[in-house]
Each structure stands twice: as C-alpha cells, then as structure tokens.
Write a structure and sequence with these properties.
Layout: E1 10-14, H1 19-32, H2 40-47, E2 52-59, E3 62-72, E4 79-87, H3 96-110, E5 115-118, H4 125-133
Parallel strand pairs: 4-5
Antiparallel strand pairs: 1-2, 2-3, 3-4
Helix pairs in contact: 1-2
Length: 152
C-alpha cells in the first residue's frame, strides 16, 4: 500500500505484529503524543488483535509517524475508528498525518468498510486539518469524550 504522498521517499505500510514494529510505534507515540501507558509487549498484543489496524510512515527506513485504528460493528455496518495519530515533531507539516489517515481508510475500504470516525480535541488544530484533508468532516457541535478505566 503506497498512497500518494507529498514526499516520494515516504512509505506508508501496515504495522506488523512484531516486537520491532511495536517498539517503533511506541517510540513515535512517546515523542509525539506522550500519553500511552503501554509497554512494547502490550502494544504487540494490540497489533495482533483482528479488529485493530495500525500503519507506519517510514522515511529512509525510520518510522516517523503512525496511525492506529479499530474496526467496530455498528447498525449501519462496520466503521473504522481512527483512534491515534502521531508524527514526530521534526517531521510535522509534511502531509504525513493525512497520508496515514488516507492509507488507513483505503485499506478499510478494501475490506468493505465505508464509514469512518475520528475524535480530535477542539484545540488540536493540526489534527483537525489532517482529518479534513483526508476527507473527514467535523461534527456540527463538539462532543465530550468520557474515558474511564474498567476494573475486574
């Protein structure tokens, strides 16, 4: 999978369920988002889940970005939840985030998925631009996202 991207040296590919890719994804996450509590072994477990789809952006063999998505069933058919998106600070503003989103969506469409959703913080203008450039629209009004830990 090699969608049209602004930099021909950029390669977008699915993340493999290996510790190497888990480490690489987590390294970019820590430098871009910095909020994942997962270990590489836990990320590997997520990469192995059939409903989970992750994509890596590589430049010169180095991982510079990632997109993590989850396919969920809905009454209207399957939907791809574009869950996490991160690009190294040194590689931002080059269209990498948009290329990752487009790759995830194109791959999902090849599996028959036609519905997509992403959640972006109201103050995260860069992500809003990337999602819009990938073809997603903002909801008519902001929504609250409630997060809580399940125990037991």
């Amino acid at each position: 999978m090699r969608p049209t991207v602004p930099d021909p040296a950029l390669v977008i590919r699915p993340a493999r369920p290996t510790l190497t890719d888990a480490h690489a994804l987590l390294e970019v996450e820590r430098h871009s988002l910095g909020d994942s509590p997962y270990t590489p072994v836990e990320v590997l477990g997520v990469l192995r889940r059939p409903e989970h789809h992750a994509y890596l952006a590589l430049r010169g063999g180095w991982v510079v970005g990632f997109c993590s998505a989850i396919e969920t069933p809905t009454d209207g058919g399957p939907r791809l939840e574009l869950d996490m998106l991160g690009v190294l600070p040194s590689d931002r503003r080059r269209g990498i985030a948009t290329a990752l989103l487009r790759a995830a969506m194109a791959d999902a469409q090849s599996r028959g998925v036609q519905r997509f959703r992403g959640v972006v913080a109201v103050d995260n203008v860069a992500s809003q631009r990337a999602f819009a450039a990938a073809g997603l629209r903002c909801a008519s009004s902001p929504r609250d996202l409630t997060v809580y830990a399940l125990r037991g």
